[in-house]
Amino acid sequence: MHEHAKLFGITIEPEKEIVLTLIEREKTNEVLQTIVKEAGLDRPGKGIAFVVEVERVAGISHVLNKMVSEKLRRR
């Protein structure tokens, strides 16, 4: 018998995909709406998308520093 991992009660099978993105808070609504539209998430059985606020990250600080620097220059 094979065990399957579950996420929110949905069985994660090898042919399923999980995509995680880290974006600026200001872009959240636009990105989520685009994902729903392009992935067809408004139809049953097509998947789920959700937003989780991130307090801390590790391993990509150089990318975050660049984003903050660019944002400050635009102001």
In short:
This protein has 75 residues and is mainly alpha-helical. It contains two helices and two strands; from the N terminus they run E-E-H-H.
Describe it for me?
Strand 1 and strand 2 (about 10) form a beta hairpin. This protein has one domain (about 5-75). Helix content is about 35%, strand content about 10%. The termini are far apart. The radius of gyration is 16 Å and the shape is extended. The chain has helices at about 30-40, 60-75; strands at about 5, 10. A two-stranded antiparallel ribbon has the order 1-2. The mean pLDDT is about 85. The relative contact order is 0.10. The protein has about 80 residues and is mostly helical.
